[in-house]
Design goal:
The protein is of the alpha/beta class. Helix content is about 50%, strand content about 15%. It has a 6-stranded parallel sheet with strand order 3-2-1-4-5-6, sandwiched between helices.
Length: about 200
């Protein structure tokens, strides 16, 4: 059980991207899609990047500030859950090729954050399209641009999807639920093994 997303002091949509492996986690796609959305909506959007930028994207602090981007090479887990999740509006997690479970997605949902995610790996099982977030075409800048724009044009989606994501987290991914599900698997296996005479 985590905290909750803090209300914004203004009407801007604050996107959060967290990925040590910038390109593998879709950072280049996020950068270009956000750049287009920033050109369209200006200061209505902001982006926080947690993780180092590749050399080709490294810019001066003035340039990043002009783009509405805050970037940190590294933050502690305590700052992630105590500062960055609570102050974000939407999590962006868009690996272009493959992804495993996507723990960052579950963590964001625990804070009531809607999620924009690639439709790869287990992510479509975590993010329910148009309910807890938006699934985008893997590797597609236009698809991601449209998703980001949707939260600016329809800001009520932040609250609606975020609340649904928080509820889904509590129902499916809270530690008590995960432990119960795992215990059920063990009990079923033990019962089947006992019935077939494999135990002892």
């Amino acid at each position: 059980d985590r905290g909750i997303r803090l209300p914004a002091a203004d009407t801007s949509v604050r996107f959060l991207f967290a990925g040590v492996w910038f390109e593998r986690k879709g950072g280049l796609i996020v950068w270009e899609a956000y750049r287009r959305v920033r050109e369209r909506f200006g200061k209505k959007v902001e982006l926080t990047i947690l993780g180092p930028l590749p050399k080709k994207l490294q810019a001066t602090s003035d340039t990043l500030q002009a783009m509405g981007i805050k970037q940190h090479d590294f933050v502690t887990y305590q700052r992630l859950v105590g500062e960055f999740y609570p102050r974000a509006s939407v999590l962006l997690h868009v690996p272009p090729v493959a992804e495993g479970f996507g723990m960052v997605v579950v963590e964001a949902m625990s804070f009531g954050l809607p999620v924009v995610a690639s439709a790869v790996g287990a992510l479509p099982e975590l993010v329910k399209q148009d309910k807890t977030g938006i699934l985008v075409k893997p590797g597609s800048v236009p698809s991601l641009e449209a998703a980001l724009s949707a939260f600016v044009i329809h800001p009520e989606l932040v609250e609606r999807y975020g609340k649904a994501g928080r509820n889904r987290f509590m129902e499916r991914f809270h530690i008590s639920q995960m432990q119960g599900a795992l215990l059920s698997v063990y009990r079923k296996e033990i019962a089947e093994s006992a019935a077939s005479g494999k135990m002892g």
